[in-house]
User: Which sequence fits this backbone?
């Protein structure tokens, strides 16, 4: 688990936006890319960032049928 004090000072290495912790890793609050956390160590490298699947983005619900 990432310490709250550490999470408070971490930022996206690309756009400097805040990061939030989710089960899948650290999510950039601006671009919604995911940075992995391995063995409780955040891997904040731009080339390791993964785009989130559209179904995982809050507020990105599919249109009603």
Assistant:
């Amino acid at each position: 688990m990432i310490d709250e004090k550490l999470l408070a000072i971490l930022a996206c290495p690309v756009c400097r936006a805040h990061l939030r912790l989710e089960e899948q890793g650290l999510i950039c609050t601006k671009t919604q890319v995911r940075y992995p956390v391995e063995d409780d160590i955040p891997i904040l490298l731009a080339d390791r960032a993964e785009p989130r699947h559209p179904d995982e983005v809050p507020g990105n619900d599919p249109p009603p049928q």
Remarks:
- Residues 31 and 49 are 11 Å apart (CA to CA).
